[in-house]
Amino acid sequence: MPVSNSQPDRNNVQGMIMRGYTHPWSCHLIFKFATQPGAKGFIKAILPYVQSAADWGDDKPEMMLNIGLTFTGLKVVSKLTTSDLAGFPPTFKQGPASAGSQQSLNDGKSNIDTWVFGQTGKQVDCVVHVYGMDEPALNKLVKIVADAAVAGGLTEYLPIANGTKRLEEYATVPRNSIHFGYLDGIDQPALNWGNPDDPADLSAFLIGYPNNTSQPGPSQGNAGVFAKDGCYNAFRMLYQDVDTFDNFLDTNAKEIAPKLGLSIADATEWMAAKLNGRWRDGSPLELTPDKPNPELSHATAFGYSGDTTGMKCPFSAHNRVANPRDEVLSEPGLPPRLIRRGMAYGQPFNSKTASEDRGLIGLFLCGSLSNQFELLYSWINTTNFSNIFPNQQGQDALIANRSMPGADTSFTIPTSKGPVEIESLPQFVVTRGTAYCLLPSISTLKSIVE
After folding, report:
1. Could you give the dihedral angle defined by the CA atoms of residues 144, 8, 94 and 199, in that order, rounded to the nearest 10 degrees?
2. Across residues 270-276, what is the average pLDDT?
3. Of 138-142, 147-151, 210-214, 410-414, where does mean pLDDT reach its minimum?
4. InterPro entries from the entry (predicted)?
5. Could you tell me the pLDDT band of residue 390, with boundaries at 50, 70 and 90?
6. Is the pLDDT of residue 209 over 90?
7. Contact 191, 13 (CB under 8 A)
8. Looking at residue 428, what DSSP letter applies?
9. Mind giving me the DSSP string for 316-375?
10. Of 233, 299, 265, 281, whose CA–CA distance to 434 is shortest?
């Protein structure tokens, strides 16, 4: 049956879709199901802790969680027939390691083979995102989830064993920052409703609402009912090579400081800002190109149409690629948007922790994995999406995959004293695992365990 165009019931939508959490502690548990009874028993055991998008007012939950199911996972637990399952989009069904998805992601076969989860042989069925107001609250709910997983016969990836840790955020990492030192979590879609031309319209993220015509659904039959009020999540574990990043800044700052008339310290911050499009305190280059301005650290009211030479912000700076705003695009239409719920994992980098794993847990929420997440990633790997720079064939300066065949890994920074030319950017970020999940509605989760 066709889905309704009414506004969603927030009590039926998983909370992370419509709101960002501010709980200081989080943990992300990744599972493979063994049997249908075990999987259903697991979901039933943790269902009371699922947080909806309803306003909690002053009664902020001490601990809570949200649940994502991959296509293989929902095949195990749902009552959908083969015909029903065919209604889900191919990108979701085939997964991030598939040839189709890798045309955009370009993680590389050798890298995929070393993923901690998400490739052939390490199938992910379920990801549980746990949040706590403090460490004891987090640990209490993590134990409830882990015990339910053991009881259901689930296999967990990244369990606490042999010195490894689950994907857990540490209190020693400043909230809303990443290991490269940048303020994070600044620019999110406003999630208003009812404007079909607005890329921040909630219908571009929530399945089952017809305002956004590019959303693949499913929108019909039993699959449409199952998916309605849900949202897709591209869940990524991204290692950040802080040593390589810091050495790159140090080396290049020493070379460019005399040319630009800057101290080495100022040249270091200038280079970091040009890679990202924002200073490390968050202030955007478009609004304050010469130095950071703490008063603008969360500013989002700016565009790039007046910076057609890249003198303020280089064309392939990460923030300009990931959200080109009013940039003239090669293809007509508005740039796709993502809801990001990222957070750092691992200890801060220093001489004692240098060998430890650290990076970003990326939750990229969207209504269409192919038309939003993968399209943006294709821009990240080959920044040829705008007519402003018709000969631009470079890459996102921070997070692109440099091993992509034919990649132009150079980086040019226009300045009034002539361009600063970087012959080849190193690999700063490496994917450790990926899973494409559906965050089902709460009514759908309840129907699974009935």
Report:
1. -120
2. 98
3. 210-214
4. Dimeric_a/b-barrel, Dyp_peroxidase
5. low
6. no
7. no
8. -
9. T-HHHHH--TTPPBSSSSPPP--EE--EEESPPPSTTTTTS--EEEEEEEES-IIIIIIH
10. 233
pTM for the model: 0.94
Tokens of 331: 């293809």
Mean residue pLDDT across the chain: 91
Planar angle of CA 100, 344, 428, nearest 5 degrees: 60
Structure tokens at 426: 């190193």
Q: Which amino acid is at 177?
A: S
340 in Cβ contact with 399 (< 8 Å):
no
Q: Which two tokens stand for residue 190?
A: 């406003």
Positive or negative, the Cα torsion across 22, 25, 28, 34?
negative
CB atoms within 10 A of CB 330: 12
Q: Quote the CA–CA distance of 305 and 279 in Å, as a whole number.
A: 20
pLDDT at position 392 over 70? no
The alpha carbon torsion through 188, 167, 235, 13 (nearest 10 deg) reads: -60
Cα 137 to Cα 48, 132, 144, 156, 167: the distances in Å are 15, 5, 11, 21, 16
* Location of structure tokens 């692109």: 400
> Residues with Cβ < 8 Å from 71, sequence gap 6 or more?
85, 88, 92, 93, 95, 436, 438
HEC sequence for 151-217: HCCCEEECCCECCECCEECCCCCCCCECCCCCECCCCCCCCCCCCCCCCCCHHHCCCCCCCCCCCCC
Mean predicted confidence (pLDDT) in 348-366: 91
- Bridge pairing between strands 429-439 and 231-240: antiparallel
Q: 227: which residues sit within 8 A by CB, 6+ positions away? A: 88, 207, 208, 217, 218, 438, 440, 444
Distance CA 435, CA 29 (A): 12
pLDDT at residue 307, as a whole number: 94
Peptide bond into 218 cis (omega under 30): yes
The more confidently predicted of residues 112 and 355 is 112
CB within 8 Å of 60: residues ≥ 6 apart: 133
CA pair distance 75, 81, nearest whole angstrom: 9
Q: How far apart are the first and last CA of the chain?
A: 22
Say yes or no to pLDDT of 292 above 80.
yes
pLDDT digits 0-9 by tens, 230-272 = 999 999 999 999 999 999 999 999 999 999 999 999 999 999 9
Q: Which of 118-122, 143-147, 167-171, 330-334 has the lowest mean pLDDT?
A: 167-171
